[in-house]
Amino acid sequence: MKTEKIIVYTDGGSRGNPGPAAIGVVICDEKGNAIKKYSKSIGIRTNNEAEYEAVIFALGKMKQLFGKEKVQDIDIEIRMDSELVARQLSGLYKIEEEKLFPLFIKIWNLKMDFGNISFVEIPREKNTEADRILNEELDNKLSQSRLL
Q: CA-CA distance, 38 to 102, in Å (whole number)?
């Protein structure tokens, strides 16, 4: 059986660092065609926390989309423009920021339900859609709070 490949673009960002934060996730087939797009406001976070939250959210959504059995047979490549988070999740960098430990552990535990997952650092200009939808989410959230 040919293993299916899924490419996931994740991005997290905050305005203020820490400040109002959001995530953007784009799940694509191996040809790069978007299957699903998600954005979500996540409260007050740092940029790094938001990057981690985007990966956690993406893993949860993939389990919902494809089912717990099927995700074990899919090659998943998670692409992000955060060098720090990509390298920490790949085991190349140590985690020194204490706030990131629980998020790293959550991803580590979620990974157990999946087959092959790789974390790939990409240039920001190759992550434009995830970045666009997270910024749209932040813009909407900030404009709503100004109306209150």
A: 23
Closest to 79 (Cα-Cα) out of 14, 134, 130: 130
- What backbone torsions phi and psi does residue 31 show, to the nearest 5 degrees? -85, -5
Q: How many angstroms separate the CA atoms of 79 and 127, rounded? A: 8
Angle among Cα 134, 138, 143 to the nearest 5 degrees reads: 150
pLDDT digits (tens, 9 = 90+) for 4-53: 899 999 999 999 999 999 999 999 999 999 999 999 999 999 999 999 99
| CA dihedral for 79, 82, 83, 89, sign (positive or negative) | negative
Please state the pTM of the whole predicted model: 0.95
List, in order of start, the domains of the chain with CATH numbers.
9-147 (3.30.420.10)
Q: What is the DSSP annotation of 12-25?
A: EEESSSSEEEEEEE
How far is the C-alpha of 98 from the C-alpha of 7, rounded, in Å? 29
What's the Cα-to-Cα distance from 123 to each of 64, 79, 93, 103, 120, rounded to whole Å? 28, 10, 18, 23, 10
Per-residue pLDDT tens for 123-147? 999 999 999 999 999 999 878 777 6
d(CA 106, CA 55): 10
